[in-house]
């Protein structure tokens, strides 16, 4: 998209470098579009948009950081969460907290101070962009790992222990980090680069530098995980439906079998909600960078779609609190210890089984040999 006031002879889309060069040459002196670089000018000219972004991102950063701390701390205080499959959840929380505690605050700085803040700190811009890609990709890959874990656990329980032991899960999580960091390396070798995006108003990979990388990024980071996760949950749904019909026809169906089936289904539903949030937050971003290769859509579209994508890191702890009794128990214990609040004041009517001892909680969650 060509900025008003001057022309460009080539067909290559405008990038931040082009715009900044024109600004340095004096061509942007009287151009109102200079506010697209954030800072006081943008906030003054667009107070509603800026205020909405700063409030939502600020709240998401604070609550998301606190929530992900609670997720990770819950593993230490609630033995019921200490099992191999939850390694993936811990990995998601670890990646998410990097987004909420570092990337989001620097996004706020990018809005408030504009491009000038990062122009004088190129190493900081590179660090934030690299960290953001690595953390977001790792979280999304880990969610894919969760869905595949549930698929094997529910649909192929006989091989679950062979595929998803503790060491194997840790190795997968490490591989997800390697993959996340690997997705940020193209910026160092010239396939793409890291810039202060003039519409997203923060340091991120350059969506206009290489169409091939943009396609690669959207396919590997969003669309491929969506296909894998969708396949996993479709198979889970079909398996559970068939199992329910089979159990219903058995006159002497084992009570333990029914309970185990219900527990597995409940856990799968919880992770399915996480998956739907992932799709809702990240699909618009993946589609945006593909369809707006000419950079023609307005700043507001880019700004708020990226904001929604980053909200994903703040919503996962809330999902755990709503759908998982063991995490509610862990949150309650952590908050009780942090703020010196009696645990009884945090117990809900649904009964978080806070009277159980640690050993009882551990025993109640010992996986059977036929499932996770």
Automatic annotation (TrEMBL):
Q: Which residues cross the membrane?
A: 52-76, 88-115, 127-148, 169-191, 211-236, 267-287, 299-319
Membrane topology (UniProt): Multi-pass membrane protein
Q: Which domain of life is it from?
A: Eukaryota
**Cleavable signal peptide:** none
Which Pfam families does this entry report, sorted A to Z?
A: 7tm_1
| Record's keyword terms, sorted | G-protein coupled receptor, Membrane, Receptor, Transducer, Transmembrane, Transmembrane helix
Indicate the family of this protein. Belongs to the G-protein coupled receptor 1 family.
Q: What is this protein called?
A: Orphan G-protein coupled receptor 64
Q: Which organism is it from?
A: Platynereis dumerilii (Dumeril's clam worm)
